[in-house]
Amino acid sequence: MHIHIVGICGTFMGGLALLAKQLGHQVSGSDQNPYPPMNVLLQEQGILLKTSYSPANLEPVPDLVVVGNAISRGNPEIEAVLNQGLAYTSGPQWLYNYVLKGNWVLAVAGTHGKTTTTSMLAWILESAGLKPGFLVGGVPLNFGVSARLGEGRFFVVEADEYDTAFFDKRSKFVHYRPRTAILNNLEFDHADIFPDLAAIQRQFHQLVRSIPGNGLIVAPERDLPLAEVLRMGHWTPVDYTAPDDGEGRAAWRYRLLNADGSRFQVFHEGTLCGTVEWSLSGRHNVANGLAAIAAAHHAGVEPGRAIAALGSFKNVKRRLEVRARINGITLYDDFAHHPTAIAATLEGLRARVPAARIIAVLEPRSNTMRMGVHADRLAECLQGADRAMIYQAPELDWDIRAATANAANISVCRSLDSILEQLVREARPGDHIVFMSNGGFGGIHEKTEQALRRLG
């Protein structure tokens, strides 16, 4: 079968392309202004990639067109699909029909930490010899690819609450029908499609409704929005997670041994299961790891084995990924784009390098950020950095300077060149520079590396 994917370079759609290729299909796709790592990964796998949208991309005529959720009416390729009466479907529906149906699906949902936690869970199952399939919204460094079919009955999927397609406005995860579900956390995001938190909670409850009675939900005990979702009704046992502080009823708990989260103990029903020692930092990642251990336990992996697996976990590209160390300066690439994620990333790094200077460079690029929904939280979330630079892109129609006027550590830059000039002028040995964006950020990472190397 010839499958053509419109919007192929999104992390989810690119993963579908890899799965379709592994199933033996002929795969092609199109996207606008693709950027690494997905375009590179697709090309390495021999998938034909067209870098613009055009009716000509549908020649020869594919057997099935899979439409990404970023594609809307008016797109010339989609208009041609509709006018020619070609067979089409959404990415999530294709995934269920061709991959998930009949498998034990382990889904990871939540506003933050989905990609990292999905990767952790897949690595735990892999280390236990279960050879799971997976689809991750990024590139897990332990695997080197964002998706694979696997050889067993387990499939781990990142379960996004974003809408499915222009013709299906339900959340993607409604299609997946998991047996095991991690609900990591929940707060307001995706303001371009959800009017308020309650609308997102209704979609999460749709997911909860699809989990069988002999399945399992893993959820943090102290997340109020998720608690409200579960109070709407659930028919599946819930294993709660929490810090080991003696409060609540959580079955799974963690106790930090290092302030930066690089070592922590895991408890199940009050019994010490072991100690995780890994390369990650931050309480958010400790919580992610604990949830992955709990979900893997439901699939039959003993906690001790899961704990050992996390010791060799390498995280995901663009999750506080070290890009370079130049003249004593460490450069990181990070995907954080929501205030909570930005603050958590900086908190984790600060715990690891308590005396060093941290410089955060942020591109407010997500749809929610572009709308200015979180403008009033921007200054606060960057307080973990000694110095912060925010890019005021031309298309951003709200004033970052006004929103952060009282923050002495923040400067606003209207061009990438001005950011680069300031970094080269101010950076000194011992600094940690974190670039934060859910896009390519105009190649600022590479430009900074090159400029610092030239300084010698």
From TrEMBL:
Domain of life: Bacteria
Domain Mur ligase C-terminal residue range list: 318-439
Annotated coiled-coil segments of the chain: none
Classification via SUPFAM superfamilies: MurCD N-terminal domain, MurD-like peptide ligases, catalytic domain, MurD-like peptide ligases, peptide-binding domain
NCBIfam families registered for this protein in UniProt: mpl
HAMAP family: Mpl
Protein name as annotated: UDP-N-acetylmuramate--L-alanyl-gamma-D-glutamyl-meso-2,6-diaminoheptandioate ligase
Organism: Candidatus Methylocalor cossyra
